[in-house]
């Protein structure tokens, strides 16, 4: 039973056996995947094991399942502080504080966030040259002992990911592609943090896919976006600083990124691709994906929309003007590509046989 595993996980946590607790919480979640408390408590075990990105993912899932669970916001805030995600941490802590106004831990951590953000702003030029880890913040917890313990995290061999991903980047943007075919948009969740990305693909009846990298550099979340296509998920990350990332994920030992003068950057410059031991032809790979999208068989409205999209994409300026003018003036009943024919007159509506054209009343 999930409750038995949860009880054993709590006991292991109290005994400072964090890896055992993590395993037991994971087994409990397999039996009870909609239990927000289990996700929040597993997030705490991940924090103790310094798995901060995983802790944020667990806290996000707990909040999604139960938005009123204050300890989930505490877990997220704590993990984000460790990841130097100070703005994201503060937002989570303020949300949690509104749910538990008498909990002094939220007040203390929000104060820590403000101090770290002020220090970060004050030392910004120096920090760009000498990257140093943030000062440690150790809040008291509502699950487990209140004292710090020394421990070492065990290196676990990562399992093979369900979906393959690749990326390329320019000085201002990174494009991440997850090659997942036939995924419905409603099954995909993407969250953007200051320096963390969280991607979840949850298909009913299948094991959920989670990808939560701590990014090489900081991004501007409100400018980032993603699109679910027929053969892939394309995620565009807008960089906070104009540099070329040498990798997707953060590493304490990493090559110094190359700073770019954004005003002098040439827009036609080819994007840089990640290094690879296998010497893959990334241009060929991208062309193959585009070919698959082009040759994909669609039915009904999707096929019709794709045909119109292809015609408009390959059309010259006069054809596009003709298509737009005829479609708008005819209330969507006529689509012409002949500008000489429609450019000098108003295009009247032409409803299908047996139907009547009516104008909308505003």
UniProtKB/TrEMBL annotation:
The answer to whether the entry has keyword Repeat is yes
Q: Does the keyword Repeat apply?
A: yes
Disordered: annotated segments: 130-153
For this UniProt record, the keywords arranged alphabetically read as follows: Repeat, TPR repeat
Q: Provide the GO MF annotations for this entry.
A: protein-folding chaperone binding
Which SUPFAM superfamilies would you find in this protein's record? HSP20-like chaperones, TPR-like
Instruction: Enumerate the TPR repeat regions by residue range.
Output: 2-35, 36-69
Q: Domain SGS: where?
A: 272-362
Which ranges carry the CS domain? 160-249
Q: Which family does it belong to?
A: Belongs to the SGT1 family.
The protein's name: Protein SGT1 homolog
